[in-house]
Design brief:
Layout lengths: L13 H5 L56 H6 L13 H8 L20 H5 L2 H15 L2 H14 L5 H14 L2 H14 L3 H13 L3 H14 L4 H13 L3 H14 L4 H13 L3 H13 L5 H13 L3 H14 L3 H17 L3 H14 L4 H14 L2 H14 L5 H13 L2 H14 L4 H16 L1
């Protein structure tokens, strides 16, 4: 039986998002909600320096379940967004993941299933504590039958006269899986009163994050650190919340604390590395990525990052060999597309625009939904004077990634040059909406308003 760590396996699917009946404040105070990521005051990088996901958060250095689950505003937008690590397309349904975990139970045995749950007398097994715990784990993880698991846990905790913290945690897990977050919160709190456990704190924090209460979750982690000083999972939990709230500087501090306790923590090293890279310190980022390589992490993403760091740190001898290795290790077309896209940037950097054009084309061959490549191809077409092609590419880019400001801004500039001021103004407004602090967009809007005033 494969044991599943429930703490990290948390992806909010489209079904869970759109059919969620929990009422959450629509207009939260700045800095208290994960739904309004741009509200943080904590020195988050601008989209001009660090690319953002559809939900408006900077791309993190490490793909974890929560980084992919932005909250799309409409069902249509949720389904349209391509599902890659760079965007925030939610998975179709989180319950799908649990079903796949339980597929082993569907193997046809000649004598029928291993245990027929419908025939079990749960009250009888609940009175045998040792057997009940093993049976619960089987029903919950293997059969994925939350309702029966909850019934067994309720009977067992009653038999233990409500004094066994383990059963309370399991009931909390069942409630969480069923979407009854407030009931789950009560169970986890009750379990914590009886027995202080790091796992229970993490489960309770997961409930608060699902209820969009990051500040409560952070306070819970900090209280946990008073009782379990130096516990890596708790420090990492705080860092993740800061990162999701766009407070990158505080997140980096906590990731450094994680490394003081555990200097082989891959997520912390990767996140600090990416933070240094986007803070214009590629040499320092290179040291962190090299550390990952020494630890035995050997995949496409790492060599991709190493190639970029080498290029921007002017260590050109290593750049192309890193990208070659990344292409060799790419497991799917999306990863290959990422490598070709970065090679396109390297080509632009050395002034070889024909090579750049080929690289961006290869990016689109591997991943047809790559909005950034469409945008960059459009810029190259504009340089060649192919206005109509550039316009078509920019429209494709902006429809694929409405959260990016670059396609809108480029389209506005292009339309203004051609004399189509109305379209230019509309695109410039969209650009300003995506990135309010972009000076060039503001200047363009000002110019256009002057034109309209003269008319």
């Amino acid at each position: 039986m494969v044991y599943v760590d429930e703490i990290d396996m948390d992806q909010e699917g489209i079904a869970e998002m759109m059919l969620d009946e929990n009422a959450i404040a629509q207009v939260a105070r700045p800095g208290t909600s994960l739904k309004l990521p741009g509200t943080s005051q904590g020195g988050g990088p601008s989209p001009a320096v660090r690319p953002v996901t559809q939900s408006g958060r900077p791309i993190t250095g490490f793909v974890r379940p929560s980084t992919q689950s932005g909250r799309p505003s409409t069902m249509e937008q949720a389904i349209k967004t391509p599902r890659t690590a760079l965007t925030a397309r939610p998975i179709t349904s989180a319950s799908g993941g649990y079903v796949r975990l339980g597929t082993a139970s569907m193997l046809t045995n000649p004598d029928g299933p291993f245990i027929k749950l419908s025939r079990l007398n749960l009250a009888k097994y609940a009175q045998k504590p040792k057997l009940a715990k093993a049976l619960f784990e089987y029903i919950f993880h293997h059969e994925n039958d939350v309702k029966n698991a909850l019934d067994l846990a309720a009977l067992a905790t009653e038999h233990a006269q409500f004094k066994d913290w383990w059963w309370k945690v399991q009931i909390g897990k069942c409630y969480y899986r069923l979407g009854l977050y407030r009931e789950a919160e009560k169970q986890f709190k009750s379990a914590l009163k009886q027995q202080d456990m790091v796992d229970t704190i993490l489960y309770l924090a997961k409930v608060y994050l699902r209820l969009d209460q990051p500040v409560t979750a952070m306070n819970l982690f900090k209280q946990g650190l008073d009782r379990f000083p130096g516990e890596v999972t708790l420090i990492c939990g705080i860092a993740r919340i800061y990162e999701e709230m766009n407070n990158i500087s505080s997140a980096a501090e906590y990731y450094k604390d994680v490394l003081k306790q555990d200097n082989t923590h891959v997520e912390a090293i990767a996140c600090i590395g990416s933070n240094h890279f986007y803070s214009d310190q590629p040499e320092i980022a290179l040291r962190f990525y090299r550390r990952l390589l020494q630890m035995g992490v050997y995949n496409c993403q790492l060599f991709n990052n190493l190639g970029l760091c080498c290029f921007y740190a002017q260590q050109y001898d290593m750049t192309l060999s890193s990208f070659e290795r990344a292409l060799f290790l790419a497991e799917n077309e999306e990863e290959t597309a990422d490598v070709w896209y970065n090679l396109g940037h390297v080509a632009v950097g050395i002034g070889d625009l024909n090579l750049a054009y080929q690289c961006f084309k290869l990016t689109l061959v591997n991943n047809n939904d790559y909005a950034e490549a469409y945008n960059n191809l459009a810029v190259l077409e504009m340089r060649k004077g192919h206005i109509e092609q550039a316009r078509a590419l920019l429209q494709t880019a902006s429809s694929l990634a409405p959260h990016m400001y670059e396609p809108h801004f480029n389209f506005a500039i292009l339309s203004e040059k051609v004399g189509d001021l109305q379209r230019s103004y509309t695109a410039a407004q969209k650009s300003e909406e995506a990135f309010p602090g972009h000076v060039d967009t503001q200047q363009l809007i000002k110019q256009l308003k002057q034109h309209f005033a003269m008319l």
